[in-house]
Design a protein that fits this description.
With 181 residues, the protein is of the alpha/beta class. Helix content is 54%, strand content 12%. It has helices spanning 2-21, 23-42, 65-76, 78-89, 101-106, 125-134, 158-166, 173-180, and strands at 46-48, 59-61, 113-117, 138-140, 149-152, 169-171. The strands form two sheets. It has a four-stranded parallel β-sheet with strand order 4-3-5-6, with helices on both faces. Helix 7 links the parallel strand 5 (149-152) and strand 6. The longest helix is centred in the N-terminal third of the chain and has 20 residues, at 2-21. The radius of gyration is 20 Å and the shape is globular.
Length: 181
């Protein structure tokens, strides 16, 4: 996703020059920008821009291109590679997946926000969060009007109360696993 952020900003800066080169190059670049923007939005790394100046595919990324490039450069350098090697030795496997816009839109939890509360009977919160994110969803720490589902386990507290007050759908681990397919 960090590469997508860098690519998005680089390609949008090339757009006006491409218009002067050729209409075909300009249209191809616009299509690439739209695909990158859709991936970033679906993976919750960006949101649509409200600016009228940014017409088609205008987005606001959660991190800017400078930060994204810095992180990529760090992990490409010797110290970053050592850290990744050590993480691998410890069984920590960070992963990144570039997915097509079509696939991102077809994920079952695309555009859905979940909040977890209480102790789940058969999985940890980390496992549930990873499952939600792998299926296109977003995990939030607090319940709001933007929350689609609250996954509630044993001893659920104030988050469950707030979800019920707001009319947010509350699901059990069993219902969650059925939704996952």
């Amino acid at each position: 996703m960090l590469r997508d952020i860098c690519d998005y900003h680089e390609k949008t800066s090339q757009l006006s020059a491409a218009r002067k080169e050729s209409l075909e190059r300009h249209e191809k670049l616009k299509q690439e920008i739209a695909e990158i923007a859709a991936r970033l939005i679906k993976s919750n790394f960006a949101k649509p821009s409200k600016s009228k100046a940014e017409k088609e595919s205008g987005i606001v990324t959660r991190v800017g291109p400078v930060v994204a490039k810095s992180v990529l450069d760090f992990f490409a350098a010797e110290n970053g590679k050592k850290i990744l090697k050590r993480m691998k030795e410890l069984g920590i496997h960070p992963a990144s997946e570039k997915i097509s816009t079509k696939k991102a839109l077809s994920l079952p939890f695309a555009g859905k926000t979940f909040v977890l509360t209480g102790t789940l009977p058969n999985m940890t919160r980390e496992e549930a969060s990873a499952k939600i994110e792998s299926l296109g969803g977003k995990v939030s720490v607090s319940v709001s009007g933007n929350t689609d589902f609250v996954l509630a386990g044993e001893e659920a507290g104030s988050k469950l109360d707030k979800a019920q007050k707001l009319g947010v759908k509350v699901i059990t681990e069993k219902e969650f696993l059925e939704m996952c397919g």
